[in-house]
Amino acid sequence: MLTAADVVRRAGSLATIPTVYLRLVNASGDPRRSMTEVGRIIEEDAAISARLLRLANSALFRRGEHVEDVPRALRSVGIAAALDLALATSVISAFAVRLPSVITPREFWLHAVACGVAARAVATRAGLSGERHFTAGVLHDVGRLLLLLVEPETMKRAMAEAARERVPLRDAETAVLGFDHAALGAELLRTWGLPETLVVAAGGHHAPGSATAHADIAAAIHIADALVHALALGASGEMMIPRVEPEAWSLLGLTSPDLEPLVGEIERQFADVVQVLLLYEEAESPRG
Fold first, then answer.
1. Spelled out in words, what is the top-level CATH class assigned to the domain 4-283?
2. Can you give the residue ranges of every domain in the chain?
3. How confident is the model at residue 158 (pLDDT cuts 50, 70, 90)?
C-alpha cells in the first residue's frame, strides 16, 4: 500500500524545500552578519521584499510610522517572521498554479492564509508568543496540497466518497489511501528538516491530544482550522466544518467567551493580511 513517504518521494523536485528559504536559514545562523545578509537576500527577491514591507505595515506588525525599506521592515518583524514569510510564500509560488480543477488555487490559499491569521490570533489569546503560529497555520494543509498535485485522481475519489458518505475528507483520505493529508504534511515538513513545531502542527492539527510534544501549537491550528471553515474563508476541499475537540480548548486554557473576540480579530486581520500577501492573485496568474 502507498505510504506518506512514497508520495513525498514521487513528488520529486516538486517537494524540494525552496532555495531562497535555505539561503535565508544559512545566513541567519551567523550572528555576526545575520541581519545584513538576510536583508540582502530578501532584497534580491522582489516578491518577498514587497511582501515583507507590506507585512511590516500590516495589522500584524504595525507599530506607528510607515516602514519603507527592507532593513527597517526586517527589524520590525524580526528574522524569524521574515524566514517564515519566505517559506510560506515560496511554497505557494511553487505549488499553487499547478492545482487541479477540483479546487481553485485562490480558494485554497485564502483558506491557508486565514488559518495562519487565525492560529496567531488563537495563540495570542491563549497568552502564547505566536512566533511560529502564522506559518504553521499557512502550511497546515500542505499535505493535502501535495496529494492534489501528486495523486489528483485518488483525491477526486476521496472527495467523492466524503460527499457520498457525509464524512470528513480526512476520513475519506484514510479510507482510500491508508493515511490522511495531516500525516503526509508532517512527512514532507520533516523531510525538509523544518522545526518540530511546524511538523507537529501539520501532523496533529486534527488530533492535538495525540501530540507528545508541542501539543499547544497543534491545538491552536486545530481551533483555527475549525473557525476558518465556519467563517467560510477560502476552501481546502473539506465540505464539513471540523469538530473542535474539547481537549484543544483545555490545552490552551480557552473557553467559549473567547470565541467572539477571536472571530472579530480573525476577520479584521484576515482582510489586511490577504492584501499583504496577494497570494490568490499570483495563484490565478496564467500558467507558464
1. mainly alpha
2. 4-283
3. very high
